[in-house]
Amino acid sequence: MYHEYACLSDGFVIDGVIECPLHQGCFDIATGKAKRAPVTVDLQTYQTRIDGDNIFILK
């Protein structure tokens, strides 16, 4: 997942919140809700299902 040209997978996750490695804005990883400035727009989230070693994104 990218946020403003930054790969969020490079960010730190603490207590269910991920920090953008470029802007230091924070998002709730379960809901995508913007938690700390400078971000103001929530991220799109997707319902998923785990089956063994596979992760499925549901419609």
CATH superfamily descriptor = Rieske [2Fe-2S] iron-sulphur domain
Low-confidence stretches: none
Structural class: mainly beta
**Strands, count:** 8
CA radius of gyration is 12 Å
| Tally of contiguous helical segments | 0
- Overall shape: it is elongated
Q: Proportion of β residues?
A: 35-45%
- Report the biggest beta sheet as strand number plus sense, adding barrel if it closes: 4 strands, antiparallel
Number of domains: 1
CATH class: Mainly Beta
**CATH topology call:** Rieske Iron-sulfur Protein
User: How many angstroms separate the termini?
Assistant: 17 Å
Assign a percent range to the helix content. under 10%
Regarding quaternary structure, how should these chains be classified? single chain
- What's the helix-strand series? EEEEEEEE
Cross-sheet strand order for the largest sheet: 3-4-5-6
Tell me the CATH architecture.
3-layer Sandwich
Overall pLDDT metric: 91
